[in-house]
Amino acid sequence: MAGYFSIMLVVLTLISGLLWLLDALVFKPKRTAADVQPYWAETAQSIFPLIAIITFFRSFLYEPFQIPSGSMMPTLLVGDFILVEKYAYDVKDPVWRTTLIETGKPQRGDVVVFKYPKDPTIDYIKRVIGVPGDRVIYRNKQLFIQKACDATAGKTCPGLEPLAQEFKAEGEFFDGVFPQKRLTETSAEVSHDILITPNDQEPIQHYFSRPGSPVDEFVVPEGNYFVMGDNRDNSADGRFFGFVPEQNLVGKAVFKWMSFEFSEDPNSRLPSFVPVGIRFERLGSIH
Which of 6, 59, 71, 259 does the annotation list as catalytic? Predict the structure, then answer.
């Protein structure tokens, strides 16, 4: 849906700009002082500057997104509104998404928005776990990473290392009736909180199939990234759909600018989409 909206904005900008230009170059010189500017020309002249600014800002600088699910809890909650930095991973045109200017690549630990590989019309948000060349294992709710390294260059490559986990709380969040554990997961790049549900078994039978590799091991191909949700037992991520191609990257999630709270009371008279409060304490940078 976000992709269609971007295309619609570009088309509307082009049409209004062309109509404004057509009037300025063709019809305006022929009008007398008594002639009234046509309605279509007046409208195009009024809306073009505003739409052009919005299109430029949304296409190349920052785009707003709403968090629709709990897959990134506790980092991001349903009802959080975020800004995504579009130029973090190259500047792309908003229609064909070809790279115009190279600006950088995702790093381990970045929270990224990307086009879902199985349906590019859908935007997903997850955390980058593995970059090209990394070997990633997720086993017994523990992440292990062997970072990419070129052994032929005469360097001593690092081995497989577990990411440190520190218990923080339990019972703050629930998976159905089961309380979840909140852990702080730390790597060399970033430290952030995750949720695990001890009672949930890992559905490895549904993991992305890669012939010749263990079911819970992922070696990231060149030009791709491996992503996971922070809510580890409630996230449809790279374990299930595979790797995210570099061209699918939309941008880096950098800021929570609004956070609405919704009622979870099934007997509430308010519709589920109507907010009942604002979580001001959640506003700020995303880590």
Answer: 71
